[in-house]
Design a protein that fits this description.
155 residues; mainly alpha; elongated; 7 helices
Length: 155
């Protein structure tokens, strides 16, 4: 299984189940939209999607939080662009990128467990992120299954 993630030969041949490619695309589109909305919408996205009460902070603190969110959104957007490059040019690396995205999501959850962010209401951001993490796990498993596995078991 590890040889399907850490390849010795990188090419544009995807060896997993085709549905994993579609899951990869869905995850990338949602993550890209999330990161672009933080860069464009800034404070309103932080308030609505993440439930952070920016209006209770000083102007300086609000500006700092919005800037940090924008930095994080930009870095995550670069990861998405790398994923799109891999999707169109180096498909054999898709299982590796599923692992990378999953580690990023798990790391974020661990950090938020030990350093929680105070939020108000029921923000949708954490729910969407948990759903994306579950979808990433499914995509990883399907990307590691060789083609023909599902048909061979059903006959």
């Amino acid at each position: 299984m590890l040889r399907h993630i850490f390849l010795s030969n990188i090419d544009n041949t995807f060896r997993g189940l085709r549905v994993a490619l579609w899951i990869f695309v869905v995850v990338l589109i949602v993550k890209t939209a999330q990161n672009e909305s933080v860069l464009i919408g800034g404070a309103s996205v932080i308030i609505s999607a993440d439930g952070i009460p920016l209006d209770t902070f000083s102007l300086e603190a609000t500006q700092t939080i919005v800037s940090l969110w924008a930095f994080l959104g930009f870095i995550r957007l670069l990861v998405c662009f790398l994923c799109f490059l891999i999707l169109f040019r180096y498909r054999s690396l898709i299982p590796f990128m599923f692992v990378f995205l999953l580690l990023q999501d798990i790391g974020r959850q661990i950090i938020l467990f030990f350093l929680p962010i105070t939020s108000v209401g029921t923000p949708t951001g954490p729910i969407v992120n948990i759903f994306l993490m579950a979808l990433t796990i499914v995509g990883l498993v399907l990307s590691l299954l060789p083609r023909g596995t599902v048909q061979a078991k059903s006959s």
